[in-house]
Amino acid sequence: MEADMGVIGGSGFYSMVEKPSLFSDANLYGKPSESIAIGDLSGKRVAFLARHSKEHTIPPHKVNYRANIEAMNSLGVQRIIATNAVGSLREDYAPGELVLFDQFVNMTHGRHDTFFDEDYVVHVSSAEPYCSQMRSIAASTADRMGIRYHKSGTVVVVNGPRFSTKAESRHYKAQGFDVINMTQYPEAILARERRICYLGIGVITDYDAGIEGREDVKNVSGKDVEEIFSRSISTVKELVSNIIKETPENRECSCASALDHAVMTKKQK
Fold first, then answer.
1. 117 in catalytic set
2. The domain that contains 44 carries what CATH number?
3. What distance in Å separates the CA atoms of residue 95 and residue 27, rounded to the nearest whole number?
């Protein structure tokens, strides 16, 4: 069983293919969050995975990111499109809009965040953690579709599952971060360690802990996140489908060579 591309997001993406094959094998790092549904979409073989499981039972700090990415890797996936709910830290990044991540800042702790923690030393460059080719394809596709989106954005990744305090949100804004999320790390960097192109698409659902001086902007709640994300899902699914259609077979990016010159140990076990 093989796939050309992978999609990681909510269970709503499973409906994009009919009668999919299911892959649920465990790997060295455990079982993926959910059975991976594999089917044909836009002329390609695509693998779909619900990050938090179909019933959304796995909180962000408990997701087995290594098992998920390794499962995609074992299927031969070379490109991953990941969708995420994000909170805005800027007034001009409004709920209902999308953002194509180009940078992340990790503020999580206690997560298994590398495949290279035994036997030998590997230092993977994360200067450009998101695939430049995939981001370009996503931007041109969103432009054609007339979607309101932002071509770049730095996402600060927090551990969760709680939302930010006002003081934390104020701090993140002061640092110049654009949006906030709980799942982009270590997912994005694990894909890079497996030489997989990774595109992160954020669906802006709220203004985090509100906007100071704006009484009309509420603090984020789980209900608000769910409502905005649900209203956006049809647009996001269409965007993902079109990105898959527009993605050429050849990779014209540095993702495939991410491990070149990264291995420090001279003699591997």
1. no
2. 3.40.50.1580
3. 38
